[in-house]
Fold each of these.
Amino acid sequence: MLKTLFGSDGNGSIRASYGIFYTEFPGLAAGIMYGVPPFGYNYLSPGPPLMATPFVTAATGVNNGQRFPFPFPPHNVSASHPDTSINWANFAPLAADPFFYYRNRVPYINSYMFSIQRQITARALLTMSYVGNQGHRILAVASVNPGDPALCLSLPGCGPFGEDTTYTTASGQTVNGTRTGQSKIGAPVGSSPNYGENTEDRSMANSNYNAFESTLRYRYAGSQFLLSYAYAKSIDQGSNIGEQIDLLNPRQTRAISAWDQRQTLVGSYTLALPIGSLLRRSNQLTDGWSLSGTIRFATGFPVTLYDNSDNSLLGTLGNGVNNYLLDTPQQLPGHLQINTNGRNGRPAFHTSLFSEETPGQLGNAKRRAFYGPGIENFDMAVQKNIRMAEARSFDFRVEAFNAFNHAQFYGPSSVDGQVDDPNFGHIVSAAAPRLVQLAVKFNF
């Protein structure tokens, strides 16, 4: 049996590997952190401001207080020796201030592979592999001061995006917003107006990737062919640092990765064109011609769902790092009716199954659960080599990308997944049309 599988001596091999790899924190993690006054020199307005008066909200006329200038604190400031010269009321609430969690640990990945290789003929080689990895302690963004939905529902006039508003109860009690998490320890929710929406960059996310990969390589008389197939799946809790994690239930945000591509079939080839042999004339004009190209068939990327209604009443607002809320739509049971044909004008899925969240609750839809249109693409090139001398030659190439000009409704953002948008569920973008280019290369 083993001889059938691996052939005679030297015709087969088995390879396996395993490794643990640690990485540094990416520079972006430091770049997104900035100090708001009086800790730094950045100010993010809670609403669109007037240009002449940048601290005044244009829509309401509310003056958010002059943040600048302020004296830089002395070097001997500490928890036991605070700087008492600052008027903190001028800077409250401290909001839109992403920070690096002080107990972060270095991210790492477990990577493994098992491969079987078999030489089928003298010109054909088959490789089949299982590859996978497990990512741990991946940096992700999470809200540390979300709103309390139950409190908001109990307050007159409280609703979406009202987490930082001051309310008065029926009994005359003043409630300074509904946020919880950064209030003074022991103080009731809504008793401290000193903090708004803030996020921490925390090494708390995980990921895993598993794939079956196979390749078949064939060479003959100056021509070569390569056929590859992969069946894979990638899962994570945030495919980029802009996707928030539910700090109370991190598994809720676990979904297929934004770049997950379930099946991919790629064929590449280089054909030596025997023009000289066909014409029975070998010279600089007839020799050195070749045709090459790549053929790719692949399933689409997942559709990412968003809900910017804030019906969850959590107020996980964007601050330049997390560009979208934590919220996802509410999904009803039913057949999704997936449509990957961008030419028929139909939505990419059954949009009536999705609606804005129920007030006070996060939507039950996964961030990503189904896929958009795939790709059927052909790239081709014709090449002519002219040898000038033993060490000098010219290469002339005509290259065509998407050679047959087949519309490709393909990409991670090809389908609008924002439930509040008029184009929700529609295929809204396509890859580039046919592109042709000429190239000349001199080798010496």
Amino acid sequence: MTTATAPTQAALTALDRCDRCGAQAYLRVELQTGGELLFCAHHAREHGDKLREIAATVVDETHKLATPTTPAADRDV
């Protein structure tokens, strides 16, 4: 008997760690062969092209790293 599991679609959290270095993961790759890999933004960029070749799905949350910058003079203090 085999049991299929549904793909993980939950958002990545601070508890999800990069499989390469242990930093916070921002990319989840669900493999065509089953299983998943998690990567920080650095390793996602480094291995991204190769990962997309073997991925069934990719959840990319690297946009969370971009924060709008506000000049100090414009901030209410």
Amino acid sequence: MASVIPKQVKKDRDQITIKLDRDVLQNLEHYCRYLDSSRDYVINQCLAFIFRKDRPFSDWLASQGLAACAESNGTAAAQAVPKPLESKAKSPAAQGRLPIAE
């Protein structure tokens, strides 16, 4: 019999050790409290956001013959690297800024 709630997908995780500037670490702690989430979750989500939004990084991955790894659906499948949109105005990433909200 199928259960109402599906089984949780377990993702492979690796442990790393990093050093952060004190002010960055303090803001990380505040943000974790704000979200009521762990450091691991917040850092993972921040990096995943940057990897999705940084167009030059996506372009570099494509030039290296690599694909960005899918992180949101719990699979290890690779997703296609999107082609840059043609636009006369510079994107926020090209201007050195990234938008906060999606």
Amino acid sequence: MVQSTKMFRTLRYYWIVARGYRFQPWNSPYLRWRFETFLGREADNLTPAKFFRLSWKYRDRLKNFVDWAAARRRAQRHARTFFVSH
């Protein structure tokens, strides 16, 4: 897959899930929950530095998650289109 497509997907996912916290994602209840679910104790007490360090450390796994989320979004959109048209 083209690198720019992956970057767009990541930014799109971030834009959706960080709503209300886009300039301070470490305070987002949803992102905190995701990090804690994904990383366990390592993600306790997120600070800006810790958020960015963990994001960088696990960037490959996060990219895989974003790709999975994009595939689920496409499947949901396809299912809605299928049921609406039939």
